[in-house]
Amino acid sequence: MEENSLISGDIEENAFVLTKFKHMKTQSVISRERLEAICDYLMKKVESGEQEHFITLNDQMPVRINHSEMEELLQELIDIRGKLS
What is the pTM of this model? Predict the structure, then answer.
């Protein structure tokens, strides 16, 4: 079980199973390829200086994250990406 500040979940073979985002329960399987795409996207948002962004959980609930949370989320996802086989 990966427990970080913003996200929690389980690492499986070539995927990360997200179970919690900002203290909200969710269930989403993120493949290694999708994780790469998310990291690239967040990196561009952080580098552009974007101050806030919305992430949709369960295809219906928008969750606001500020710039520092974007940076934190990016680092957490990079760390998880490094642990995938």
Answer: 0.89
